[in-house]
Structure formats: C-alpha cells, structure tokens
Sequence to fold (366 residues):
Amino acid sequence: MESNQFIYLVVAAVVLFAVVGFALWSRSKKKPAVLTPSEEKHATAAEPKAAPATPAPQKPIARADSALRRTRDAMAGALAAFWGGKPSLTPAQWDEIEEALLMADLGVSTSQKFLEQLKQKLASKESNSGAMTSDDLVAIGRGLLGSLDHGAPSLEGRPSPTVISIVGVNGVGKTTSVGKLANWYRRQGKTVLLGAADTFRAAATEQLRVWAERSEAQFVSGREQGDPGAVVFDALTAAKARNIDVVLIDTAGRLHTKVNLMEELARVHRVMQKVIPDAPHEVWLVLDGNLGQNSVRQAKEFANVLPLSGVIVTKLDGSAKGGALFSITSDLNIPIRFLGLGESVDDLVPFQPEEFVKALVAPVTV
Ligand SMILES: Nc1nc2c(ncn2[C@@H]2O[C@H](COP(=O)(O)OP(=O)(O)OP(=O)(O)O)[C@@H](O)[C@H]2O)c(=O)[nH]1
Ligand SMILES: [Mg+2]
Fold:
C-alpha cells in the first residue's frame, strides 16, 4: 500500500469514529419527549416514585368536555354557521341549525326557544356590525337552563343524617350512581351509609355491597325478595344511632307506568318517616342520558307520584342526546344534581350549567 493510500485510510477511519462517536454521545444526552409504554415501565422501574394515594380526578369541565363529545358533534356542524362573522344566515342555514338542535335532542319547544334567542342575538349583533361569539351562544344556552339551584346541594345546616332516595326505571344506572355518590360524599369527608332497598332483583344487594366496600361506606341490607320498607327502617335506624351524615337508599327499578310499583315507592318513603319524620330529604330520579326526550316523559310520570328534588343523568359518555337536559330543566323545573360520565367510581360530576353549555357549544380544553 502506498503511503498516500494509507493516509487516506487513516483519515477516513478517524472521521468514521468521530461521526459514530458523536452520534452515540448525542443520543445518550437526548431525552425522548414521549416514552413508549415499555420504555416508561423501565424508566419508572429505574427511578421509583411514590404513587399518589388516590389518583387526582380530572377536573369536571375537562371530563364533561370529552364525555359530551357525541352531543357536541350533533350540534357542532350547524352552529359552525355562526363563526366567521357572517352578516346573516340563509333560511336553509336556519333549518340546518334547527335540525342539529333536534338531533341533539333538545326537544321541539326548547329548540324553538334556542332559535328565537339566536335570531334576536344575531339581529342585535348585525345592527352593531358585530359577530356572534361563543360567549353569546354560552349565554343563551345557560339562560335556557334556568336559575334552578343545580349541582350538589350543600349539606350545611341540614338535618343529620340527610336521607337521599334514589329512584328510576330499570337499568338506568341507579345502583352505580349510588356507589359513585357514596364515593363523592366520602371525598367531601362525610360518613355515608348505603341502604340496599332493591330486594327485588337478585344480585342487586351484592352489587351495592361492592360499591359500599369500595368507598368505605357503611351498608345495611335485608332478605332477598323481602320488604324494602324493612330495609329502609333498619338503614335509617342504624344511621341515626351511628351519627351518619348521608344515607343513600338504592331502590328497585320500576316502570313509571306500573301504578302499584310507584305506590310501593311512596310507601317506602312513608316508612322512612317513622324513623326520621322529614325523610327522605331528597328524592333524586336517575335518567339514562341515551333516552333523550323519552327521559323527559319518564321524569314527568315520576314527578306526578313523588316529590322529586333532583335528577341524575347517566351514560352521557356514550350519548348524542345530552341536549335533553335543557328540556328536563325547562319542562320539569327540577334541578340537575349530577352527571354520570362513565362506569368507574370517579365518573360522576356535579352538574355545573355554565360548564355544561361551554362543553357543548364552545369546547374548553383545560
Ligand atoms: N357508560 C356508562 N355506563 C353507566 C353509567 N352509569 C351506569 N352505567 C352502566 O349501566 C348499567 C346499569 O347500571 P345499574 O347501576 O345496575 O342500573 P340500575 O338502575 O341500578 O339497574 P336496576 O337496579 O336493574 O334497575 C351498568 O352496566 C352500569 O355500569 C354511566 O354514567 N356511563
Ligand atoms: Mg340497581
């Protein structure tokens, strides 16, 4: 080999080493922005961190925002007509908006009110040559939810125990909501007792017992097929003796059309009054968010028989019919207490009307 060739070879080898060496060095310095699950596992194993005692629950607005995606999608296309400061909308565009509101199951009369107010707002914007903003839509939607005292009622100054009876049609999510409520009140530092007054359905008691254990709530049950009145009597007596803050009574599902079953509920409530004269302090109707306007009809029937003081709307995570909440409040004048946004223990959020409307018409990412 000639000396020139040898020199080239040495130089090439040095350059190669330098390039490879630099690449390896810079790779070792660089932290990946996102770890794959297996990298994450190893990274965590190398640097163990103390796990938080309970995972921080997501902020309600963020949860409602994602859980209401389907209802929002039902409305979004048409409401998009407002963005971009268009001077006016064509009749066809108004029809589309009306259709979208009906698709989101706001119901005919609430949709009409929504449309009228949108038209008024747009007219006043036009005369000031302004454009419709998402705040305007939120204000209109919020107005339609009325001035009821929505959300979780304060227990301050309330009789103790506060007895909340949970009622509704079969399968709407009563037991699950009782379980989630137990957890919610426990997180507020309250002592909670669950009464398994669904003695009718096999396995209902066991289902509730699991929820009680999960949320460290006390639990009172009776015999299967036994008298639900006996269970509430025992539950309220125990709650009084043990200084419990909140008693949640899970009742058997029943069709609002079955008069005898509806009367049985009223009787169970009267049994409560033998122990605590003004019980139940709250009667909350659970409605399945997938039923849309049909749930409004259910609610009317229950309200005819029972003194409803609140509504829980469940399964909104899979529903495109969340717009029915507007009719529930405007047609029935009953506050919405909580929303069920999934099947796990933290998937229950107090109803915040403004945040709800924001999540529908002007999604907020927190
Ligand atoms: N996705 C979703 N599922 C829910 C929600 N709430 C309840 N469920 C589910 O709905 C089903 C019925 O729930 P339950 O709590 O047993 O309903 P229930 O009203 O007590 O039923 P009965 O006692 O038979 O009348 C279960 O599979 C629950 O996991 C919710 O907010 N979101
Ligand atoms: Mg049940």
About this structure: Residues 143 and 292 are 20 Å apart (CA to CA). The chain has 14 helices and eight strands. Confidence is low (pLDDT under 50) at residues 6-56. The pocket of magnesium ion (ligand 2) is lined by residues 174-175, 198, 204, 250 (CB under 6 Å).
